[in-house]
Amino acid sequence: MFILSNFIKSLATVIHILLNLYMWVFIIRALISWVSPDPYNPIVRFLYNVTDPVMNRVRRYLPLHFGGIDLTPMVIIIALIFLDSFLVPSLYELAMRLS
To answer: Does any domain span residue 63?
Structure first.
């Protein structure tokens, strides 16, 4: 069972890192939206390609555009923080119980 326990611990660590990286991508996307970025810049295109599918899905269900301010990135960042603080410790606890 220790192999499964180690696998779940490493999976929790990878999920933690990926959720944090994705959160920072959304933060950078929100900061870039305050200025007028060049849409042909490869970095800007990468940020839009990575974040647009999630943002469009959230916008479809929760219209969070008030007076020119889009609150969708904030909702997504809060959801990512929730997932990180709920899912990762749960996986660590499961791994501890299995060992």
So the answer is: yes
